[in-house]
Design a protein that fits this description.
- The protein has about 900 residues and is an alpha+beta fold.
- It is built from 26 helices and 34 strands.
- It has an eight-stranded mixed β-sheet with strand order 7-6-10-4-3-13-16-15, with no helix packed on it. A six-stranded mixed β-sheet has the order 30-29-32-27-26-34, with no helix packed on it. It has a five-stranded mixed β-sheet with strand order 18-19-20-22-21, covered by helices on one side.
- The longest helix is centred in the middle third of the chain and has 33 residues.
- The radius of gyration is 28 Å and the shape is globular.
- It binds phenylalanine (PHE) and zinc ion.
- Phenylalanine (PHE) binds next to β21 and α2.
- The site of phenylalanine (PHE) has 11 residues, from β21 and α2.
- Belongs to the peptidase M1 family.
- Its cofactor is Zn(2+).
- This is Aminopeptidase N.
- Pfam families: DUF3458 (PF11940), DUF3458_C (PF17432), Peptidase_M1 (PF01433), Peptidase_M1_N (PF17900).
């Protein structure tokens, strides 16, 4: 049932899932790290599954392995005893079970794809999710085969003093010829994708944590010696996350040690290997001098995310990779909840929502759209997507909203308890939620499963009528979805939280004899109507409070209605979302006006948004600086691109700048006095209040650059010269470069001179230039690619330049003549030859083509066709083929 696509690509279908014929009882690995290769000996104890046929074949997977020997129950086997086709290795004589011993040779130094065992700055490390373990040894490399592991690593003591693997270190000592060894035992059965091994010269920060039941856990963060001063924040975040998971989910840690290792070559953010997380340096290292506020927040969130996987992912894992959202969506929801409790809940929510609406909505509306639980894939690495992570998290959140915090906790308790040590599927998660809450399981699972099966963003249309004589309001909600190949959409369960805003504020209204200022409905049919009573005046509806469902809302709200929400809604999230809606509306109208050739200058009084903000923003800047700073960050081009049918970046950019000027002009005095506070120039403190003050000043500086460029330039220079931390330096540099203020070039040079020895700061330096919103940035990017510090082997650096250009600089990327696409295509070919996962991800930027005008569409299609004629990895070929289709 495997389908050949092209030459080698094979499509795998969820419907073809078959349970493994053999269980793996134990894995014993012996890894010799030698000067130019590694030799891996594996001893695997198999037992035939009761359900498997008597003559079942033992099927293992292997890729890029040099097979040195194979034995079954200590009897050597020869090549006639097995079949090896592609990655699949089969042996027919396994009977009831037995012990398979293999020895293979691999080449970590030549591994540039960063999957399997590879070296990063001399450090050996592994990345096994999703299918990397088969590049280390022949193995049933699938998530539903779990076993205990015992791993011995032998290496040169001088160059690799530190030898780590999962679990507990049970033996270590000297070996011959200046070598040494360490043996690790992991008592928790796990699938191979959670295996990890690290060997190298690392320094360590140690601390500890005492679990709720009183067990002492050693915490260790391993980094290069020079980075040891950047580990405190990650350690504090880890301890906070461990306590939080005990308190909120009753989840306690289950080994004596928890280790984090920082590596500079990594394809993703971090990896939750059991007891031995491997992190991209960018997600673990933080120091006020080198890390911005956003960087600090990211470290906290990723450390928590990987830690939370210990239960949602490791103790309960996934049966197959179609169920990826089971661990990722749920864990993202958990880390979002955690982050919301650390700093500002509203800011956390609106940032998560803006991210979803900007990037996931676009993915779901474009050629790469897929279900949260897809039915098929070619390359699983292509499915670590925004849909699986972010939309997956929104589904968990809707269940939380629908069942309530306590009901959701009952469900998660049931899930962790019932499936502990097992490989589960989405249905298991849903049925746990139903059973623990006494709901009809079949109906509940069938209904909620639709969210996992139906791609695309649903649309909810809202109509309402207020009757003055009876003081009642009828509300009708209609849901619709576009149908995707093979899936006929059925109505989804959609939680709707809403309130009513009168002329002077929140109204209390009654629904089914419950009087409240905020109600929660469940829209579960194609169309439903509700009747509210005691609605004393004509209200404006505050809909989908806190974004209670990941849908697009169509409601006939006038500019005045939106302005009322911005001023008076008690739900802060909805105040923000009303500014987004109104700003989008005004930007699109301006762009249309320019298109008609009407280029009259705009006054603040022409903008309802400017009026609403002028009335409330100065006071908000004092009472809630975090929210205030967000209200001035109008939707960016990526967000706007999803709101239009034909995307012209330059026109939208011009309209957006014009609206910004209208909005900021009346706030000038207020912005000046904010900047006079100079919180930015005080020593770094990681707290919600300090971060809000800094973020407000950064926004104010950026605003000032539009109103008084000279004054803003002077201030930015001052920040750069006396900055006590990177948050101030980065804000100043971004404003100078992005707004092309006087002195920008010199500042770029000086920043480089100061930070050239800090790779993560240098990434920011590259990214700031590559994302400067001007057509000229394409030339800058060409130059940056030639820079001595550009290194195509380091994914962080590639993303800082190529990724920023293609995904975060629409004005430069969408050059009319297609030069931006050419640049990307050239880079993709270079990158794909060594790192397919990285190239495939970057290629996703071309998925925007259906939104472009015909001329640009033609350019992208030409680029796609040219690329598809080249020799490509299966990862990148699948992505480009799906984009082209
Ligand atoms: N599982 C990791 C996470 O989300 C992401 C990852 C996937 C890392 C694949 C590496 C490879 O936490
Ligand atoms: Zn994850």
């Amino acid at each position: 049932m495997k389908t050949e696509v092209g030459l080698t690509a094979i499509t795998i279908y969820l419907k073809d899932y078959q349970a493994p014929h053999y269980a793996l009882e134990h894995t014993d690995l012996h890894v010799e790290l030698l000067s130019d290769c590694a030799e891996v000996s594996a001893t695997l104890r198999f037992k035939r599954a009761a359900s498997a046929p008597k003559d079942a074949a033992l099927t293992l997977l292997g890729a890029d392995l040099e097979l040195l020997s194979v034995a079954w129950n200590d009897q050597p086997l020869s090549a006639d005893d097995w079949q090896w086709q592609g990655e699949t290795w089969q042996f027919n004589g396994a009977g009831e079970g037995g012990v398979l011993s293999t020895k293979v040779r691999i080449y970590p130094d030549k591994n540039l794809a960063l999957e399997g065992l590879y070296r990063s700055h001399g450090l050996y490390c592994t990345q096994c999710e999703a299918e990397g373990f088969r590049k280390i040894t022949l193995f049933p490399d699938r998530p539903d085969v779990l076993s205990t592991f015992r791993t011995t690593i032998v290496a040169d003591q001088a160059s690799c003093p530190v030898l780590l693997s999962n679990g507990n270190c049970v033996a270590s000592g000297k070996a011959e010829n200046g070598r040494h060894f360490a043996t690790w035992e992991d008592p928790h059965p796990k699938p191979s994708y959670l295996f990890a091994l690290v060997a190298g010269d690392l320094a360590v920060l140690r601390d500890s944590f005492t679990t709720a039941s009183g067990r002492e856990v050693a915490l260790e963060i391993y980094t290069a010696e020079v980075d040891q001063d950047k580990c405190d924040h990650a350690m504090r975040s880890l301890q906070t996350a461990m306590r939080w998971d005990e308190q909120r989910y009753g989840c306690e840690y289950d080994l004596d040690r928890y280790m984090i290792v920082a590596v500079s070559h990594f394809n993703m953010g971090a990896m939750e290997n059991k007891g031995l997380n491997v992190f991209n340096t960018s997600c673990v290292l933080a120091h006020p001098a080198t890390t911005t506020d956003a960087g600090f927040q990211r470290v906290e969130a990723v450390v928590a995310h990987e830690y939370f996987h210990n239960w949602s992912g490791n103790r309960v894992t996934c049966r197959d990779w179609f169920q990826l959202c089971l661990k990722e969506g749920f864990t993202v929801f958990r880390d979002q909840q955690f982050s919301a409790e650390q700093l500002s809940p509203v800011v956390q929510r609106l940032e998560d929502v803006a991210f979803l609406q900007t990037h996931q909505f676009a993915e779901d509306a474009g050629p790469l759209a897929h279900a949260v639980r897809p039915e098929s894939f070619v390359e699983i690495n292509n499915f670590y997507t925004l849909t699986i992570y972010e939309k997956g998290a929104e589904i968990a959140r809707m269940l939380h909203t629908f069942l309530g915090a306590e009901g959701f906790r009952r469900g998660s308790d049931h899930y962790f308890k019932t499936y502990d040590g097992q490989a589960a599927i989405v249905e298991d998660f849903l049925s746990s939620m139903a059973i623990a809450n006494g709901l009809a399981v079949d109906t509940f699972v069938c209904q909620w499963l639709r969210w996992y099966r139906q791609p695309g963003t649903p649309v909810v249309r809202v109509t309402s009528a207020w009757h003055a004589d009876s003081k009642t309001l009828s509300l009708t909600l209609t849901q619709s979805q576009t149908s995707h190949a093979g899936v006929t959409p059925e109505p989804l369960p959609i939680p709707v939280r809403l309130g009513f805003i009168g002329e002077t504020g929140e109204l209390t209204t009654t629904l089914a004899s419950v009087s409240a200022s905020s109600h929660q409905l469940l829209l579960e049919k194609a169309e439903q109507t509700w009747h509210f009573s005691q609605v004393e005046q004509a209200p404006v509806l505050s809909l989908f409070r806190d974004f209670s469902a990941p849908v697009r809302v169509q409601a006939a709200l006038s500019d005045e209605d939106l302005a009322r929400l911005i001023r008076l809604d008690s739900n802060s999230f909805n105040r923000w979302s009303a500014t987004y809606t109104l700003a989008t509306r005004e930007i699109l109208a301006l762009a249309e006006q320019y298109r008609r050739g009407d280029v009259r200058a705009r006054q603040p009084q022409d903008s309802a948004l400017a009026g609403a903000l002028a009335a409330m923003w100065p006071a908000l800047a004092t009472s809630d600086p975090a929210l205030a700073s967000k209200l001035l960050q109008l939707p960016n081009l990526a967000y706007l691109s999803d709101q239009v049918s034909c995307y012209d970046p330059a026109a939208l950019q011009r309209a957006r700048e014009a609206l910004l000027l209208q909005v900021l002009t009346p706030l000038e005095g207020s912005l000046q006095s904010i900047l006079a506070n100079e919180h930015m120039l005080t020593p770094y403190v990681y707290s919600a209040a300090a971060m809000a003050a800094r973020s407000l000043e950064a926004v104010a500086l950026d605003a000032l650059a539009r109103l008084q460029p000279e004054a803003a330039a002077t201030m930015a220079q001052r920040w750069l010269s006396v900055a006590p931390h990177m948050s101030a330096e980065q804000a100043a540099l971004t404003t100078l470069v992005h707004q092309q203020l006087p002195g920008a070039d010199a500042a770029v040079q000086a920043f480089y001179a100061r930070w050239q020895h800090e790779p993560l700061v240098l990434d920011q330096w590259f990214a700031t230039q590559a994302s400067a919103p001007h057509a000229s940035a394409r030339n800058t990017v060409e130059a940056l690619l030639q820079h001595d510090d550009f290194d195509a082997a380091v994914p962080n650096r590639v993303r800082a330049v190529v990724g920023q250009f293609a995904s975060n600089n629409p004005v430069a990327f969408h050059d009319m003549a297609g030069k931006g696409y050419d640049l990307l295509a050239q880079q993709l070919l270079l990158i794909d030859a060594r790192n397919p996962q990285l190239a495939s991800r970057l290629a996703g930027a071309l998925g925007i083509w259906p939104k472009l005008d015909p001329a640009r569409q033609a350019c992208v299609l030409k680029t796609l066709d040219a690329l598809l004629n080249e020799s490509l990895s299966s990862d990148t070929r699948e992505t480009l083929t799906r984009i082209r289709a």
